[in-house]
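Researcher: Sit down with what I've pasted below and flag anything odd:
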Amino acid sequence: MAFRDHVARTWDRAILSSVLLELGYRCNLDCVICYNDRAEPGVPLRRDQYLRLLEDLAALQVLTLTLSGGEPLLHPDFWAIGRRARELGFVVRIKSNGLALGGTVARRLRDEIDPFIIELSLHGATPATHDRQTQVPGSLVRLLDNVAILQASGQRLKFNSPLTAWNEGEMPAMFALAASLGVPLSVDTRLTPRDDGDLSPLDLTASLAGMRRVMDLQRAAAASQNPAATREEAITPGESCHHCGAGAATLAVDPCGQVYPCVQWRRSIGSLHEHSVAELWHGSRELAGVRAVTQAVKQQFAAWPAEERPAGFCPALAEQRTGSPMTLDPEVRRRMEAMGRVGPTP
């Protein structure tokens, strides 16, 4: 069976395969485009609750577990959670800014957790740009120093880069930097509001010219089959009845135990302080509603001409910006314009 068909079957049969844990919103950077709401209202999950959650996810045969934040390494139970995840056989992914991953930490990470991949945030090709976005002087130099240490310890790495008005002019240099290091680079051309509704990160939205330049760089990388400069395409199986896997194959958990269909869709389906993850996965009415929405979105766009369909449409972000998960929000329309696509008039 092709992987695309496997994913479609997972979505359609509601098989939970990937879970992201936001361990906490503390961070040693202060990125101007960060979407986290650092207030963390509620009671944080305890270590014993995290370990029980991992047991429950293993019983549900979840494949991938992503540890994120904020900066996940700042959580006091990061190592205990990571070690148990490895013991239970999850494919562990870690999303980090990389600043804490030098020296003995890199070796400890390999020896105790052995993640499948570590995803690092890259904000520019020069300290002036990268450090401007992180608001921490010296953060690019520390990141690149730690990349060398992580690679020497045998870790598999990937760069994630948000496209902004500040770094769009450095994108060719960022692709070249990633290629020189042998680290794949994934660029997200879309900025998102903060989880509390604050729209200020959108003030740094890149220009249409910048978006087109990135798309050209991605196409060139794909044509050259350069693994250090490729874009990770979203998985959207044509045979699935869902537009995406949110709530159909994925969940996200915030630091206080609220469970969401995905990291972007801040529509809580319940709390781990009150229910097990299995109870929520199989019995949440809110989650059933989300699955119905992703099916309706798939049906809506299937009726559009192929050249008008929105690439990268996210129902969660559409709901956040417009109040409806079915409506094209302004950022998607800008992306469509950059691609030469024009959808129906709102």
